[in-house]
Amino acid sequence: MANRTGTYIAFHAGGTTDPTASDIKYYNVLKAWDANNDIDFSFVNSHDKTSAVRDSSKWATLQARLKERLNMSKNFLLIVTADTKLDTDCVPFEIRYGVDDCKLPIIAAYPDYKAVLFPNLLSGLWPAALASRIGNKTATVLHIPFCKEAVLHAITNYSLHDIKKLRAGSNQYTEATHRSWGLLAQCEAADRNYPKPPTSRTLLTGLQIPAKKDEGKWWNGLRIK
């Protein structure tokens, strides 16, 4: 049996290895946090555990490598941006295999948001493979802002070994936890009513509600420009 201690990291690479041209830049941020001895951040990267896969690899070979990496993982960090849904091969495959076969909890990290208090308002960013599994509660997903405090806490505390800490479907950190990480001050400065939800009764039932233009950015945290 594989030693399942790693964190699998998925993102839309956009068919490029340019470190500034796609979401790979966020993967490189994670590696920089891990390499910086002055930052209290460390994780076991499942992508370092197997042979490197070239972008030109045939799909069957790539699938085999991705499965090998997922089989060695304890959790699954998915970087979610406006481009994530554009990935029609790797990301959907990773989600399907990671959830359906490996039973991994997904940590969905949003680089464009300073806080994620009402993740249903961000459902428009979710790939179909993720949205359907949240909807039928076959996936266990923790939605977080992409900051080192949230990422480190999530990958350290939530894995397949203690998945029962989370409920099936969507989960998010509390307002108090966001505040302890210093993530709400700018949001509150921009909107004195933040973080009161626009229709809290609907949100608390876990139902998706139609969002007004830009509503998601205000209720989840000031969007980073």
What would you note in describing this structure?
There is one protein chain. With 225 residues, this protein is an alpha/beta fold. It has a single domain, classed as Rossmann fold (3-Layer(aba) Sandwich). It contains 9 helices and 5 strands, in the order E-H-H-E-H-E-H-E-H-E-H-H-H-H. The chain has a 5-stranded parallel sheet, sandwiched between helices. Strand 4, helix 5 and strand 5 form a beta-alpha-beta unit. Helix 2 runs parallel beside helix 3. The longest helix is centred in the first third of the chain and has 13 residues. It is globular. About 7% of the residues have low confidence.
Nutshell version of this structure?
This protein is α/β, with parallel strands linked by helices and 225 residues long.
